Amino acid sequence: MSAHTPSRRHRIRRGALTVALATCMGAALVSCSDAGSGEAEPAAGRSVANTAAGLAGLAQKAADTGSLGVIVRVDSGDGKPVEIARQAAWTKDDHRLAVGDRFRVGSNTKTLTATLVLQQVAENKISLDDTVEEWLPGVVKGGEDITVRMLLNHTSGLGDFLLTPQFLPSLTGQEKRTWTPRELLAITPEQDPPAEPGEKYSYSNANYEALGLILEKATGSSLTELIKGKITGPLGMKDSYLATNGDWDTDETTGKQYVTGYEPDAERLRAILSGTVDLPEGVGFAGPERSGDNIDTSAIDPSWSWAAGGMVSTARDWQTFLTALNSGKLLPKAQMKQMRTTVNAPEEGGGYGLGLMKVNTACGTVWGHTGGLPGYSSEIYTDASGRRSVAVLTSTNFGIKEEKAATANKALVEAATCQMLGKPQPSHSPAG
Asked: Considering only 86-90, 112-116, 248-252, 338-342, which range has the smallest mean pLDDT?
C-alpha cells in the first residue's frame, strides 16, 4: 500500500490506514465538530436524551451497528460517574465486557509522554528549544533543525513509518517482529510533500519515538520506570502499564480482564478502503476468525508504539490521569500553558498543543487525545478545568469506518461529551 502522489497520500493518511491504525485519532468527536465554533447551542434547540438511560441506549445501538463493544464513563465531577458497558451479543462468547476492563489506549499515550517531557523542562533538564541532534546524534535525519517543541506538536517535518513497506506487515500482525525506536526512526521518511521543520502540523508517531529516547537519555531511567515513578504510581493507576509485547497483564486475584478487540477480515477491509487505497487480495489482520467477517486482533503486538501509543489502561485510570493533568496537579502553570499552546490542526477538530488536543465540539471545547490500534479506538477528554471527564472506548477501529457504524459511534461520543459538559445532547443527534 503505497502512495504515488501527495493528494493520494493525504487521503490514505486521513481516510484510512493512518487514521484507523496509527494510534492517531478517533473520528467520531472530530467529525461532530466540523461546524467549528465550539459555542454551545441554546438549550431550547437540544434534546435531553443524554441521560444515563439515553447513553446506554446509544451505546447498545453503537455496539449492534458495528462498534461491537463499547465502554462509556462520564465523570461530571460530582462523585457519581455514569458507567456503561455494552456489546454485540456474539462477542460475549469471547468475553463479557465490563467498565473496568483493560484496554489499549493507543495515542492517548502521547499526552503522558508529553507530560513527562514537560516535567523535565520544569526541572531544567530538557529545553523545548533543544535540537534532536543534541540529544540523539545521528539518529534522526535533519535532527539539527528539529527541536523538542516540534516533536511534541508534530511540526518536525518527519513523515510516519506506518505506511512503509518494511513496517506494514508488523502493523497488521502478519509479521512477528520486535521493533526498537531507533529502527523505526531509521525507516521514517520525510513528509510527502516535504516540509521544513516548524513549517506545518503533520501527525507522526516518529516524533514520539524520538521523545521517548530523549526522556531516557535525560533521566537515565527507562520509559517504564518514568511512567511508574511519575504518573501511574503517584496517581494510584493500578491498572495501567506500558505494553512491552503482545501479552496482556491479567489479574487473577481481582478478576481484572482485558477488552477483546476486533477488525474486519481482509474482504471487508478492502471494501472499507475502496476508493482510498487498493489493498492486494488477502491483505488483512492476523488473528482468529470471528462472527460477521471479523478477526480477533487482541494478540497483535503493540510494543512498537512505545512512547507514541503503548499504554494499557482503563477508562477510570486514564480519566484519573487526564483530570490530574488538566487541573494542574502534574505540571507547573508555565508548562501547562505551553502544553495548551496549539498549532492549527483542523483534522483533529481544532488545534494540537504539546501532546494535547484541543477539540471544539457542539457542546464546547474539550482537551485530551484519541487513540487507535488494531481492535481498539478511544476518545478521552476533560473540560478546561479538568474537573469533568469522559471516556469512550470502542473494541474495533476500522469497523467504525463503515457508514452506519460511524454514525452510531459519533452519536454516542457526542452525547457522552455533552453530558460530561453538563449540556443537553444536540437535537440533530439520533437518540438511539
From this structure: 248-252
